[in-house]
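During the reporting period the student researcher (J.K.) took over the structure-prediction task from the postdoctoral fellow and processed the backlog of single-chain submissions. One of the processed entries is reproduced below for the supervisory committee.
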Amino acid sequence: MRVYVPLTLPALAQAHRAGELGPGPLTAYAVTPGLREWYVSDDIEELEYAALTRAAHGSLRLLAADPGAVRKRVVVAVDIADGAVHADPDQAFDPDALGEVRLEAAVPLAKAAAVHVDADDAAVDVAKAAEALAAADGGDADAQFVVDGADDHELLWFATQEIEHLIAG
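J.K. obtained the following structure tokens:
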């Protein structure tokens, strides 16, 4: 199963040093029954893109909690055994938890298929979105508009061999 693990660049650097994403438990995103029903699609590529987008929102939350982190969303796509992924059936259709899964144990970075990171030109919008996140969560429509502005930036795809370059800059 492909899962998308939200991180920040400092967390990616730590994972690179440790050789694993973790320790567990980790929150990740995947194509779950709730996400399938919400997205109303049978196209696996569209569904995986939706899970990636959910993970990008998770990364934004991590950025909001870490004001010192470089203002770029980071998502690591990892292929792991289905049995290592747990979805909470009580949250299957909760709009805030769509696609959310839990990984109980650390995941070797060698299982990563790719890394998705914002381009440099997204940093200003991502920074504004991270700042506005708490207000958006409180129902502020203007803040939600700012948060949604981060979605105007597509995450770039990087091979796992490029992680060292990503964390160096």
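The committee noted the following: Helices lie at 9-18, 33-39, 44-65, 123-137, 141-149, 163-168.
J.K. will present the remaining backlog at the next meeting.
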